[in-house]
Design goal:
single chain; alpha+beta; nine-stranded antiparallel β-sheet
């Protein structure tokens, strides 16, 4: 039996190095495994987190202190910080070894802290903005006060100085707040900068906030400093002072004075005054040239001559002068100048009245009692629930104790049923105490339509001033409008009776209020004068005179039966035959049952008849029908009118609208005016002329019952003419296509004023083409987005062509680029890509931080990848077997190993797949590393062979 001898193997230094290198490689492989384990925090990650948490803690302490100084609640951010700090304390306690970590919990605490930190920073920003806004408001208030100073001219300058002082004070307060905010921001910035300077890791923790925000404490401090800069407040103060100075300059008041003078001059220099003057002169001339005037003048001269020749004339003259003086000093004229509101405009406040927001001018719609005509302007006092509605007229005037004033007015309630009491009287002021007292004159009873009321108001003791007072003494049920008009307030006197007897004169006079009746008997003359009614009652009254009886105006109550009236000239208000076959009314209108006009001319007549026979009718104005009876017809339109200039007008009114069509100046015009509105009244104008069609829509600023107000606010128009085609403008102006006769509901398209195309009804597409079967392009326009845009022909976009044969062509043979909006390349997703060449942009000129790669590190990452064969779920049984790494997006604990550096994510961080560019170059690094090992092993092998063959 042969003996087996043991073989001794002696390892050289190179052999030991190989074993040591293998151990190092194994250790590195284990480190790579730990590095890629998502449930472990590696030593490298721990060291990074230690630095980051140092910066985070420093940042937290600074923010907490600043938040407390600004009064911001820190409870939530403190809780979030403590949770994160407690979770990481145990993990970071051992920085030399990897530790297990629950990534889900870690991320939850990180997100919670970042979210609360963002809220704190938002609160800082809001506080700074509030301080800035407060200062701006103070400046705005100062400017508003300056504007008020302009209207109070007498005290403007002193008020402006006071406002300037207030602004300075406000600036001082805001400046103090600004300085404090600036100091806080500077402190926060300094502390944050100290924390950031502790290391790059800490800086990353400070700047990387929730959702990728990079707002740092330094940036926040800079923003605060900019917002609360004191220079802005100084600018506002200077601007305010400048505005006040401009508003209160004497030049502005001088301009107003000059403008007022020009307005007065323009008003009294108009042609209207010359016209009035000429007309008045003509009227006076015609009166004094009449024969009646000559007779009156002669009779008056004789009476005056006889009177003044009397020896008693001197006494009479003195007494008469005293009486005239007394009467003139107590004029009984009406104090209210326009008590019937005849010159008032509906919706406006008439001159002299102070409504105090309790009433306005309205139009009367009730004429049942005949007291107030329909369409007249009346005062409407608005509804009151529980308090009185007081209205005042004019200025205060002087009164004495015991003075009496006659009062009168007409009133009705809106629903013909009285609620409360309406009264007219005086508001007086006590000379000693200044107390006010309200005196009732006339007051309402219970009217069911327009009713007239009268009364006397007596001035009480110690009253020295008074003004007109109209009041609605409301009750809890007075919740409707009341109307009043024809208001009268005038002084009244006690009854006087005088009998004066002279040597040749007996005068009996009775006066009451402003009425004077008297009988004066002189030698040869008797005067009976009455300011009211004089009645001669007897079976027979004879006028026994040799001279003609002069009766300037007379009404004969019965007919002159069986009498013949012979006269050269007959003057009468009306004239009629006994059987009334021919009448002439007071306005000169002739009514005849059968009248033939032979020859002659009717100059400016109004003819009311059923039939007019004639070959040619020449007239200036033709009316059809009677004047439209409606309160909106303020201009007195007829249903149809032809005016002297050849204009034809047709007019209509109701409570809601006024309509008028006309043919004038070669055009047909239609006008629509709404009668209902509040500052805006709907209006439409349509004109058809030789150029085309013009349609306007909009509003008038006032109710246009005369069709004379233009559309002041245009909301839209449509113009059709041969030169410009169709022009649309406005919110609702459009061209609408409603489909064919087969469509029971509208279907088609709408072309908007901008030229856009919208669907009408159930229309889903709009196409361009020869017909439905030969569409060039089809555009989906449904609201659900179901229908697409489809082009059935090749599409050229510049040098880019898309045809119908699955081909995208560069027309000028240039490259095709797919870029983002910022110019950078965009990602492309495709299934299978066939290409002639694949070029990756790896130019050094576009790169930064270029360092030589550690091929051993990348080789270890490549070797840690789990490869798998598979098929896609969409593959069929003809698809080939696939081989690649796996991105595990299913399992929480990853079952397929793939380092994160090889995984591609989209902009939202969502997993996309494997980044082949990185993987390819990592594989190249693996090949290089393996080649190094092969070369080294070959060297060792050659060395061993040499020694063995030694």
């Amino acid at each position: 039996m042969a003996e087996s001898n043991a073989t001794q193997v002696i390892l050289t230094d190179d052999g030991l190095k190989i074993i040591k290198a293998q151990s190092t490689a194994d250790s590195a492989a284990g480190g790579v495994t730990n590095l890629n384990d998502p449930n472990l925090m590696s030593v490298i990650e721990k060291q990074n987190n230690i630095g980051q948490f140092a910066g985070l803690t420093s940042q937290y302490n600074v923010i907490i202190q600043d938040a407390k100084d600004d009064g911001i609640d820190t409870t939530a951010v403190t809780t979030a910080y403590n949770n994160l700090n407690e979770f990481m304390a145990g993990i970071l306690a051992d920085p030399s070894h990897a530790s297990d970590i629950d990534r889900v919990t870690y991320k939850k605490y990180q997100d919670a802290y970042n979210e609360e930190l963002a809220k704190i920073q938002s609160a800082f920003q809001n506080n700074a903005n509030n301080k800035f806004t407060s200062a701006a408001n103070a400046t705005s208030q100062a400017a508003s006060t300056a504007s008020q100073a302009f209207s109070a001219a007498d005290s403007a300058f002193s008020q402006a100085q006071a406002i300037g002082s207030q602004v300075d004070s406000s600036m001082a307060v805001q400046s103090t707040a600004t300085a404090k905010a600036q100091s806080t921001a500077d402190s926060a910035f300094s502390q944050a900068k100290t924390a950031i300077d502790t290391g790059q890791a800490a800086s990353q923790a400070v700047t990387a906030l929730k959702d990728g925000s990079t707002l740092t404490i330094a940036q926040l401090g800079s923003g605060l400093a900019e917002k609360v800069s004191n220079s802005e407040y100084a600018s506002y103060k200077n601007q305010t002072a400048s505005q006040i100075g401009e508003l209160v300059t004497d030049g502005a008041f001088s301009a107003y004075s000059q403008a007022t003078a020009r307005l007065i001059s323009a008003t009294v220099a108009t042609s209207d005054f010359d016209s009035y003057k000429d007309q008045t002169a003509k009227d006076i001339s015609s009166k004094v040239e009449s024969s009646a005037f000559e007779s009156y003048k002669k009779q008056t001269d004789e009476a005056i001559e006889d009177k003044v020749s009397s020896a008693d004339y001197t006494s009479d003259k003195k007494q008469t002068a005293e009486m005239i003086q007394t009467l003139v000093s107590k004029s009984p004229s009406n104090i209210i100048k326009d008590g019937g509101f005849n010159s008032a405009i509906v919706g406006q406040v008439p001159s002299g009245w102070d409504f105090s927001n309790v009433g306005q001018i309205a139009t009367n719609s009730d004429n049942a009692s005949g007291l107030v005509a329909t369409g007249r302007s009346v005062l409407q006092i608005n509804s009151q629930i529980s308090s009185n509605s007081d209205t005042f007229y004019g200025d205060w005037f002087d009164v004495q104790t015991g003075d009496q004033f006659y009062t009168e007015f007409k009133a009705r309630w809106s629903n013909m049923s009285q609620k409360g009491t309406i009264l007219i009287g005086l508001e007086t002021c006590d000379a000693n105490s200044g107390n006010l007292q309200w005196l009732s004159g006339a007051s309402t009873s219970s009217p069911n339509t327009w009713t007239k009321y009268t009364g006397i108001a007596t001035v009480g003791a110690n009253a020295t001033r008074a003004r007109i007072w109209v009041s609605w003494q409301g009750s809890s049920a007075a919740n409707e409008a009341v109307f009043v008009t024809d208001l009268v307030v005038r002084p009244t006197y006690s009854t006087q009776s005088d009998i004066n007897q002279l040597s040749h004169d007996i005068n009996l006079r009775v006066t009451k209020d402003d009425l004077i009746d008297q009988i004066n008997i002189q030698a040869g003359k008797t005067l009976i004068s009455s300011s009211g009614q004089l009645t001669l009652a007897a079976d027979t009254i004879y006028f026994d005179t040799n001279s003609p009886v002069i009766i300037p105006s007379a009404n004969i109550g019965s007919l002159l039966v069986g009498k013949t009236l012979t006269a050269a000239n007959i003057s009468a208000n009306t004239f009629s035959t006994n059987n009334e076959t021919f009448t002439v009314d007071s306005n000169g209108a002739i009514t005849a049952k059968n009248m033939t006009l032979i020859g002659g001319t009717l100059t400016s007549p109004t003819i009311n008849t059923s039939t007019i026979n004639g070959s040619t009718i020449n007239g200036t104005t033709f009316h059809g029908g009677d004047i439209i009876s409606h309160y909106n017809n303020t201009a007195g339109y007829y249903p149809m009118t032809i005016t002297p200039d050849g204009t034809y007008k047709s007019t209509y009114f109701d409570n809601a609208v006024g309509l008028q069509s006309s043919v004038e100046s070669g055009a047909i015009a239609y006008k629509y005016r709404s009668m209902i509105g509040n500052g805006q009244y709907l209006a439409y104008d349509s004109v058809i002329n030789g150029q085309g069609l013009d349609l306007q829509s909009g509003y008038t600023s006032a109710k246009d019952t005369t069709f004379s107000n233009p559309v002041s606010t245009t909301t839209g128009y449509v113009i059709v003419n041969a030169n410009d085609g169709i022009t649309l403008h406005g919110d609702n102006q459009q061209i609408t296509f409603n489909g064919t006769s087969a469509d029971t509901t509208p279907k088609g398209v709408i072309i908007t004023p901008y030229g856009n195309i919208n669907p009408n009804g159930t229309q889903n597409i709009w196409y361009v083409g020869n017909n439905m079967s030969m569409k060039t392009a089809s555009f989906g326009m449904d609201g659900s987005g179901t229908y697409n845009i489809q082009f059935n022909r090749s599409l050229d976009i510049g040098n880019f062509n898309i045809n119908t044969y699955h081909t995208i062509t560069s027309s000028d043979n240039g490259p095709i680029h797919f870029n983002r909006a910022n110019g950078n390349p965009v990602d492309i997703y495709a299934s299978t890509v066939n290409y002639d060449s694949l070029v990756k942009s790896s130019l050094l000129s576009v790169k930064r931080d270029v360092r030589k790669a550690d091929t051993a590190y990348w080789a270890q990452l490549v070797n840690s990848i789990d490869l798998a064969t598979y098929q896609y779920k969409s593959d069929d049984n003809t698809s080939h077997l696939r081989l690649s790494s796996i991105v595990d997006d299913v399992n929480k604990t990853k079952q397929w190993q793939l380092p994160d550096v090889f995984i591609s994510r989209d902009e939202d961080g969502k997993l996309c797949g494997v980044d082949d560019s990185v993987l390819l170059n990592a594989t190249l690094a693996t090949v290089q590393e393996q080649q190094k090992e092969i070369d080294q092993l070959n060297g060792h092998l050659l060395e061993l062979e040499a020694k063995l063959n030694g």
